[in-house]
Design a protein that fits this description.
Layout (H helix, E strand, L loop, with lengths): L12 E5 L32 H13 L4 E5 L9 H9 L6 E6 L4 H11 L3 E5 L5 H7 L6 H13 L5 E7 L8 H11 L2 E6 L17 H11 L2 E4 L9 E5 L5 E5 L12 E4 L4 E3 L8 E2 L1 H5 L4 H13 L5 H7 L9 H4 L2
Parallel strand pairs: 1-2, 1-10, 2-3, 3-4, 4-5, 5-6, 6-9
Antiparallel strand pairs: 7-8, 8-9, 10-11, 11-12
């Protein structure tokens, strides 16, 4: 039975962070100055096992979550993540099983993920300009490595493939039209993400945000666009198609056009806490009860109470007045 929160929003999506570790150091998520070689990530014993993730997923799907997305950190740095994919693919009620990755390890992993039952994949790439991309990812990868990952996903049979690009004014916004043209020609859906104030460490400023309106204007001036309806009510991306029939783009406009009113996402962190908002201050621990022997019914009750009391609408509140509070870091709950 689908559960609903205080604003009558149903639980539909579950995002699972399988690790807090990442092989990139993107400035908007894990800036290298803070997450250097000496940074202490979660010890293995504090991270949920595949069996624990699968059990919790089974409980949460019974409460309405039909769309499951694996995230991180970078999910492909978790050893044998394809084994987890196979376990989740077998969970009753899972209707859509997807994964978001920086693409770097896809040449080694794409085929195994596909064979394990992964249905869709999203790959992050913030620019096709190598210098810009290296600046944004902490100089951990060039563009070609990610393009090789996209090719590997294509060869493994993933279709469609979505590409995510975070846009920051003065950093990579001058490359968005080139990005749009490149992926239009290759038939992939490119989604631009407004630079968000996720976490506490990325030095976010409103003046660094390139709005959805601005993005559409810039691309549309060279390749005319027209709006499309959302595929379903809680879809986060605003959709636009090229008037020449050459595909579409999406824009996730959390800052300038908040979509809190239809938000249906729950996030499970790598250490086993559930969060009801990307901008949450704290989560609700499930690992403790799980490892102390709680039954499925007892864990379900914790989840019901957590979602049932949910009042989150941070992006709408931020749009009205500046909101400053300590928030969970994005790499903990996977964006």
């Amino acid at each position: 039975m689908t559960i609903r929160d205080t604003f009558n929003r149903p639980l539909r999506d579950l995002r699972i962070s399988v690790t807090d570790r990442c092989n990139f150091r993107c400035t908007y998520c894990m800036p290298a100055a803070i997450y250097g070689e000496s940074y202490k990530f979660l010890p293995r014993q504090q991270v949920l096992t595949f069996e624990e993730i699968t059990r919790l997923t089974g409980i949460i799907t019974r409460l309405g979550a039909v769309k499951i997305r694996l995230t991180g950190g970078e999910p492909l740095v978790r050893e044998q993540v394809e084994k987890l994919v196979a376990m989740l693919a077998a969970v009753e009620g899972v209707g859509d099983l997807t994964l978001t990755t920086n693409g770097y390890l896809l040449p080694q992993k794409a085929q195994a993920l596909r064979e394990a039952g992964l249905q869709r994949i999203t790959i992050s790439l913030d620019s096709l300009d190598d210098a810009v991309f290296r600046r944004m990812n902490g100089n951990r990868s060039g563009v070609q490595a990610v393009l090789d990952g996209i090719t590997a996903a294509e060869q493994a049979g993933f279709d469609p493939i979505k590409i995510n690009a975070v846009v920051q004014r003065g950093v990579n916004d001058h490359t968005i039209v080139d990005m749009a043209r490149y992926f239009k020609e290759r038939g992939h859906v490119l989604r631009f993400i407004e630079y968000m104030d996720v976490g506490n460490l990325n030095e976010w400023r409103m003046e660094d945000v390139v709005s959805a309106h601005d993005i559409v204007e810039r691309i549309g001036a060279e390749m005319p666009l027209e709006p499309l309806e959302r595929n379903y009510k809680s879809e986060v991306a605003l959709r636009y198609r090229y008037r020449d029939g050459g595909g579409e783009i999406g824009i996730i406009a959390s800052v300038t056009k908040p979509f809190c009113g239809a938000c249906s996402r729950m996030r499970l962190s790598a250490e086993g806490s559930i969060y009801t908002c990307l901008f949450a201050e704290k989560g609700t621990d499930l690992r403790g009860p799980l490892r102390e022997g709680a039954s499925d019914d007892e864990i379900e009750q914790i989840i019901r109470q957590t979602w049932g009391s949910r009042i989150d609408r941070y992006s709408e509140e931020r749009a009205g007045i500046p909101v400053r509070r300590k928030k969970v870091e994005m790499y903990h709950i996977g964006g």
